[in-house]
């Protein structure tokens, strides 16, 4: 049986204390399945629904692996909508509380580019956003993805439903080949399996049927 205590992971005491303070008493199934692999730097291909705790399933592990002393974008999280991107950023900020100065920036379409371009003059450690706008910022040269160590495709099936496949593919081409890629999707139609084959390396596969 997979242990469900956060203390079964090798996490610093202040990180465990923060999880406790957030009311996270035990790992959800997608967290128990993903976190050991995320912490070990492996790729993950997880089938999990809304509300299963996906943000912490990648967030706790990726926050642990990033280097806050390097002011470069090390983690890129792609989401289908602004609303979901805002939720992910908010959750990551709560999880990042015990870490020193982790800068997380949300970049989505439907808002003026000017302030986004200005905010990128000081690169954040983590970028969360929607594929179309991120690709535009990347093509302008203001979003730099050459130091990305981990890429997350969150709610991948919804991103494809929204027609983001080409933008996602183009964005991934800006990231290094040597990166960790985490794929989360509620469903696995052929297009998602195809993306996984193209952008992942020996992913650890996790299927979660129940929500908690
Ligand atoms: P998903 O992205 O799969 O829809 P979220 O990551 O947004 O799910 O998490 C859903 C809710 O569950 C959030 O309110 C989050 O704070 C809470 N949550 C996540 N993990 C845990 C946990 N281990 N214990 C308690 N609550 C949790
Ligand atoms: Mg989510």
Automatic annotation (TrEMBL):
All copies of the Helicase ATP-binding domain together span 35-206
Which GO molecular function entries does the Swiss-Prot or TrEMBL record give? ATP binding; hydrolase activity; nucleic acid binding; RNA helicase activity
UniProt domain DEAD-box RNA helicase Q: residue ranges: 4-32
Motif Q motif location, chain numbering? 4-32
Got a GO cellular component term for this one?
cytosol
The residue range of the signal peptide is: none
Sorted alphabetically, which keywords does the UniProt record give?
A: ATP-binding, Helicase, Hydrolase, Nucleotide-binding
Asked if the Swiss-Prot or TrEMBL record annotates the protein with the keyword Hydrolase, the reply is yes
Q: Does the keyword Cell wall biogenesis/degradation apply?
A: no
UniProt lists the family membership as follows: Belongs to the DEAD box helicase family.
> What name does this protein carry?
ATP-dependent RNA helicase DbpA
The record lists the lineage as:
Bacteria, Pseudomonadati, Pseudomonadota, Gammaproteobacteria, Cellvibrionales
Give the fragment's position in the full-length protein: 1 to 212 of 458
